[in-house]
Amino acid sequence: xxxxxxxxxxxxxxxxxxxxxxITLSAKPLLDKKLIxxxxxxxVISICLEKGPYMNxxxxxxxAHARPLSSTKQxxxxxxxxxxxxxxxxxxxxxxxxxxxxxxxxxxxxxxxxQLASVLLNADKVQQLLAAVTIDDLANVFxxx
Length: 145
Fold this sequence. Notes:
Elements: E1 9-12, H1 19-32, H2 38-51, E2 56-58, E3 60-64, E4 76-87, E5 94-102, H3 110-120, H4 123-131, H5 135-143
Parallel strand pairs: 1-4, 3-5
Antiparallel strand pairs: 2-3, 4-5
Organism: Pectinatus brassicae
Protein name: Ascorbate-specific PTS system EIIA component
Pfam families: PTS_EIIA_2 (PF00359)
């Protein structure tokens, strides 16, 4: 299973956008495919406002997610890379890789998380993601090319 294909990846400068914008943009491919609804995106943003930056899972990396919602069609993930840092919640948590994970239940996302962890625990792959210039470059990190 390919974790992230080109249709699930976007790249923007990040100039002048808020962390809420980054989360919303990161979810756009899933919203466009009708895999999630705006309810899920709003839930993620509400959790961040309530609980703080705990979704900042590593240097430059945010894994935006919320509790399962029945409106989510299937477990899915997308990625927004910003070429400039966007402060997540506060200036102590700059990020450029904005993953958005959605799930309809408590278990269907486990395989996605395992695959994502194998990429994000590899420092070379994280550096490749941060250095990527094109969406093809980003997709290639996940396809193993």
